[in-house]
Backbone:
């Protein structure tokens, strides 16, 4: 039986707990043993009286450490007592998965040495960019590639604030409060808005990209709490977007980096990254530019990183490469298509639509041609009725957001043809 311990039970570790319990059968079948959550250490037990697993909780470290563990998930945050606790665990050969980027940035060499010396492991996938699988990717791939520069939007809270401030309607304090309520911000959000959090993540990325731990003295850090709506307006007038960017490169002698508000142009690979999402842009000699993006903060994305990290480290240690995949059916809400046909086929097409469970969303006559483009949307899972018709060319639509472009026209069933053709 695998005995699991939790250090902390806030946003991140409550997510890990839920992820483990909800997918227990899968995890047990992959690991080949039963899993049992043994003990949870928190600071103030009274805050957790309404938790269903209250009986597993303790606020006495000696009580927690009197248990046996096979794996411990640490998401308490801060340097101490996390460092002492993890040191103790690794010295007892107990592997640790942590989300604590401050700890890893400041004590990474010690923690990695301890893990190696005691034949254990420390996983820190969740310390950089929340749910984006970047740490183990860089650790196992991109070894041969020489990284020229790494840059990124590495803090979800500040990207969320910047996104919401950009339209000029909300105050900094109001949006920060929302980011805290959503579980994105650090316990003390100064770490987010003054750039310490992004600095820790950049230090960890530098180790992975340039091969050695880099002291914080090599970085220049500027906060973003002074941003005002006119900064955004100026950017817009200049055709630029304001973002909070962390970047580092090796100058041939040493690694240097900055964390600072920055204007980027709209073609920049990080320009479309909004809300709590993060993005990492890596420039390498042979590969060229590599960009990865996704949720950078919050309960489920970060818990995903922690659980994936555990499986990754465990299976690697056990030399178990061929593992069963967890899958889930994808059921699209609605499907949209663009149909192209000659205007002369309009009546046939209209009749087919009327007889189907598709709705017409938009119709357009393409300038100076007899070609019509029509957007249709399936009301339910429909048969692909246009696939076989040789005078119709059909293309599925994929949209980047939930915006369903709801300005279409109606076609009444069995009634008069109400399709409008726009020029
Ligand atoms: N939130 C996020 O999106 C992400 C967070 N992280 C990192 O994960 C870590 C945790 O973050 P998060 O879950 O948001 O933090 P929370 O503040 O939500 O939770 C912290 C938890 O740790 C407990 N804790 C704190 N100090 C101690 C201590 N000295 N002894 C025992 N328990 C303690 C708290 O207990 P109590 O309630 O009793 O004080 C609480 O249960 C941080 O290092 C953070 O940087 C990483 C990626 C994303
Ligand atoms: N406070 C952090 C949490 C994730 O690392 C952030 O906002 O990015």
Residues:
């Amino acid at each position: 039986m695998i005995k699991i311990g939790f250090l902390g039970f806030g946003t991140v570790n409550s997510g890990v707990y839920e992820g483990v319990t909800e997918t227990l059968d899968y995890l047990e079948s992959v690991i080949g043993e039963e899993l049992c959550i043994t003990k949870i250490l928190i600071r103030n037990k009274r805050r957790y009286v309404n938790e269903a697993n209250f009986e597993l909780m303790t606020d006495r470290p000696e009580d927690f450490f009197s248990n046996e563990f096979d794996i411990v998930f640490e998401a308490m945050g801060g340097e101490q007592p996390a460092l002492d606790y993890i040191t103790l665990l690794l010295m007892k050969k107990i592997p640790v998965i942590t989300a604590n980027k401050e700890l890893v940035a400041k004590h990474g060499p010690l923690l990695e040495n301890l893990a190696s010396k005691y034949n254990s492991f420390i996983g820190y996938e969740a310390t950089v960019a929340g749910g984006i699988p970047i740490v183990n990717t860089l650790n196992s791939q991109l070894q041969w590639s020489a990284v020229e520069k790494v840059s990124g939007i590495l803090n979800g809270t500040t990207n969320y604030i910047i996104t919401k401030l950009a339209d000029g309607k909300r105050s900094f304090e109001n949006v920060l409060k929302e980011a805290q309520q959503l579980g994105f911000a650090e316990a003390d959000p100064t770490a987010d808005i003054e750039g310490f959090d992004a600095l820790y993540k950049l230090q960890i990325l530098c180790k992975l990209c340039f091969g050695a731990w880099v002291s914080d003295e090599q970085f220049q850090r500027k906060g973003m709490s002074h941003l005002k709506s006119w900064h955004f307006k100026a950017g817009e007038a200049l055709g630029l977007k304001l973002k909070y960017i962390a970047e580092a490169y090796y100058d041939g002698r040493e690694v240097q980096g900055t964390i600072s508000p920055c204007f980027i142009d709209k073609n920049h690979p990080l320009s479309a990254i909004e809300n709590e999402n993060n993005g990492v842009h890596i420039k390498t000699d042979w590969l060229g530019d590599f960009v990865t993006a996704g949720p950078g903060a919050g309960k489920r994305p970060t818990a995903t990183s922690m659980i994936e990290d555990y499986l990754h480290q465990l299976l690697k240690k056990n030399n178990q490469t061929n593992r069963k995949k967890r899958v889930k059916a994808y059921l699209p809400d609605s499907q949209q298509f663009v149909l192209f046909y000659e205007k002369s086929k309009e009546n046939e097409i209209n009749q087919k639509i009327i007889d189907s469970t598709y709705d017409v969303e938009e119709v357009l006559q393409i300038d100076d041609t007899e070609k019509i483009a029509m957007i249709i949307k399936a009301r339910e899972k429909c048969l692909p009725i246009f696939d076989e018709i040789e005078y119709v060319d059909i293309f599925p639509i994929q949209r980047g957001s939930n915006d369903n472009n709801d300005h279409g026209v109606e076609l009444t069933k069995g009634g008069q043809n109400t399709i409008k053709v726009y020029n």
User: Anything to note?
Assistant: Residues 335-398 form one domain. The two ends are 69 Å apart (CA to CA).
